[in-house]
Amino acid sequence: MAAACGGALGRVALQFLRTRGGIAGPVSSLVPRVPLQGAGRSYGTGGGSGFRSKWFWTLPGRRVSGRVLGCAFLLGGGGLGLYHTVKSCFHNQFAQQMTPQSDTGDLRLTLYQYKTCPFCSKVRAFLDYHGLPYDIVEVNPVMRKEIQFSQYRKVPILLADDGETLQLNDSSVISSAIKTYMISKDKNLKQILSYYPEMKYKDEKGKEVTEYSNKYWVMLGEQEVEEHYPSKDSMKEEVRWRRWVDDWLVHLISPNVYRTPTEALASFDYIVREGKFGSFEGFCAKYLGAAAMFIISKRLKSRHELQSDVRQDLYKAVNDWVTAIGKKRQFMGGTRPNLADLAVYGVLRVMEGLQAFDDMMAHTSVQPWYERMERATEQHQGKH
């Protein structure tokens, strides 16, 4: 989803560069052909009556004079974020003050991310829960200059340095590999990464796709599995639901966030009011941007064969998750969250502050679990 978003934004920005600040052709020609898979925002906490319904957004630190629609796509496809940005800044400052010590020893971590990406939110949820200190480098989704060092052009990317800098790609690989590193006593990180080999192939459209073997598995020995999982079945359950997050849950975000013109327009209205737009730029950002994202959300609904009312798919998915946990467990991991818990939480929290999030809380039974996850992550309860 993050890669599709970045690619789409690049096409929009390039279109404006070619027109030198003017709008050439119909609006439909500026709508990316590649569907944007999901919109999200960066980490924010707050539970119970603290759930908020205002739309918050963030602007990249670039001028928007001739590329306002590109910025509109950037904000629409990749960001629902001022609210979460402020909370993320507070969270990061709080985390730095705590300076937690962890099982990663002297491993220095740097996360390259879009703060508005659900996959990046998954990684932050994992790192925060385990109390792992890390630096953040925010990547511009259009230019992506911050990751020019990498042939892998998606985010998240995690650089891990323990004397030798290693690059970890893919949110699921990052969580699995670092978790393996935390548990294993006889393997270094370079050895562990060899368990997740990269595979490249071309899809039905001829586009090269990069995947990773074993990415949902924590690679442990039999004794380590017995020590850290109640049973082998519980490990398989964790893998199954982590895969479900990537294959299904993330694809429900954008269609729900941009479900109606009113919901789409509300977000861009906030951008215009808070951003430094001229009258023409503000008009384009608010109306063309909202219209474009509304159209894209419909394409996603069709692509993933969602119901007419996409909320129903979201409600069913969330209730299926809660049912799988059951009434006797606090988390899927039992008394403590496992990697499936962290993945689901990381994706769902990108909707905080939006109507879709409020509706989900009102029409599903997820809130008690969500609040437990929020506390566990904020308090670094996975730190040993």
UniProtKB/TrEMBL annotation:
UniProt key word Membrane: yes
Query: Topology in the membrane?
Result: Single-pass membrane protein
Which principal EC class is assigned to this enzyme? isomerase
Q: Where in the cell is it found?
A: Endomembrane system
Q: Which InterPro entries match?
A: GLR_AS, Glutathione-S-Trfase_C_sf, Glutathione_S-Trfase, Glutathione_S-Trfase_N, PGES2, PGES2_C, Thioredoxin-like_sf
Which pathway or pathways does this protein act in? Answer: Lipid metabolism; prostaglandin biosynthesis
Question: Domain of life, per the record?
Answer: Eukaryota
- SUPFAM superfamilies, sorted: GST C-terminal domain-like, Thioredoxin-like
Recite the UniProt keywords alphabetically. Fatty acid biosynthesis, Fatty acid metabolism, Isomerase, Lipid biosynthesis, Lipid metabolism, Membrane, Prostaglandin biosynthesis, Prostaglandin metabolism, Transmembrane, Transmembrane helix
Q: Record's CDD domains? A: GST_C_mPGES2, GST_N_mPGES2
Pfam families of this UniProt entry? GST_N_3
Give every GST N-terminal domain span.
111-175
Q: Does the keyword Transmembrane helix apply?
A: yes
The record's catalysed reaction(s) read:
prostaglandin H2 = (12S)-hydroxy-(5Z,8E,10E)-heptadecatrienoate + malonaldehyde; prostaglandin H2 = prostaglandin E2
Enzyme Commission designation = 5.3.99.3
Q: Per its UniProt record, what PANTHER family does this chain match?
A: MICROSOMAL PROSTAGLANDIN E SYNTHASE-2, PROSTAGLANDIN E SYNTHASE 2
Family the entry assigns: Belongs to the GST superfamily.
Name of the protein:
Prostaglandin E synthase 2
